[in-house]
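Wait, mind explaining this?

_____
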Amino acid sequence: MKKVLALGLIITLALTVLLSGCQTQTDTSTQTQEGGGNSGGRTKLAMWFWGCSDAYQKALNENLAGRYNAMQDQYELVIEYRETVDNDISVAIAANSGPDVVYGSGPAWVANYAKSGKLESLAPYVEEYGWRDKLMSPLYEACTVDGELYSIPISLNTVGLYYSKSVLEENDWAVPTTIDELYTVMDEAQAKGMYAALAGNKGWRANNEVYTTLFLNHFAGPEVVYRCLTGEQKWNTPDVQNAVRTSADWYKKGYLGGNDYTNISAGEAMALLASGKSPFVISSSQFFQFANEYFNDEAGNTDDLGFAPFPGTDKAQYPTFSIGTVATFSVNASTSHKDEAAKILNIMISKDFMTDMTIAWPGYWGVPLREMNIDMSRMSGLSLAYSELLTTMNKTVNAGNFAYFVQTFFPSATYEHTNDIDTVWEGVASPEEFLSDMDIKFQKDLDANLVPPIPKVK
């Protein structure tokens, strides 16, 4: 999956100038090049998405394109799957081209392009479709720019512990709810020659964001992160320094994949968990989507995978969910079919779409609806485990107990810097040096008004 943060506008505009004389199929626009054509009498609308598996492509085609295309007979939604989707969209919309429905790698990406007029304000559709009432308030607000909605969040994401029920049972371990209980299990696992816990960034260095999110929120605390994000407190202060130092201690102790952090991908972590090599995978809930290859009916272990909130610390009570959204969708300001693109977004914000996609693709399409009310009778295996997590998160977050996922609530330059936390782990930078640079980048983001609205925890 391509989760690289979109290029900055300055870079993309420069690329546009360089490519303007030799535009290729990569930055073609449905509305400018296909809008005049049709398919069976229908005008094509485009959405670009990352290059997921054939099974997941089939699910999205059926549940999104199929739903929309069956609603009317004038337009046809065509979803194109691209390995370089982030870069392709960045270049295309900078040239006032690109797909009608715009995929984005989170609110920070949206803010840059909304402020440059590349995305359409969704304000007219908020009232028409009731989106403010449908979506969980913290994530709705994170997708606004200067008070107006510019994207919709399509997944409720958090950080926690995946665990093998059979491994815990065989070793007489309980699911930990406190940090001391977690330390006990991890230390005993290491003593038995197992990984204390599985983590890694192989093939996707941006996965560092998961661990920056974890340590800032659970070892500095949500209130501290809130004060930093609102400019009330600097990042380079003792409580945040301690959280970053703790992350380095974990890395050195082998709590993050032992010596294999850079050699473990999401799929490999799930494979190792399924084979009993560790009691836990510490990662984001979106990684349910990579578990089905290793936890399934054929292997006879579909019900063996569990997911628990990260254990409580003296800075974050149990359960505290760091919430975020995997991705967002917007309407291209250049499309001549804005109302139709908004209709497509509205399909995504529906219980039927979320339910059907969770059955087919657990982990990615847990749309953050304010009222979940998931029909559990339709769920089994991974989709059931994921739905139970969504239900728990929904109740907890609606009650005001949550924390801040880096990829959703941190502005672009600050977010990119958080992925350099591994420089502290490797001893290249001290916590103080890392956070001093973070303060500089954050101040620039703050001055440019790129920090999304930060909801306050209760």
About this structure: The chain has two domains: 9-155+326-392, 159-323+410-447. The domain at 9-155+326-392 is CATH 3.40.190.10 (D-Maltodextrin-Binding Protein; domain 2).
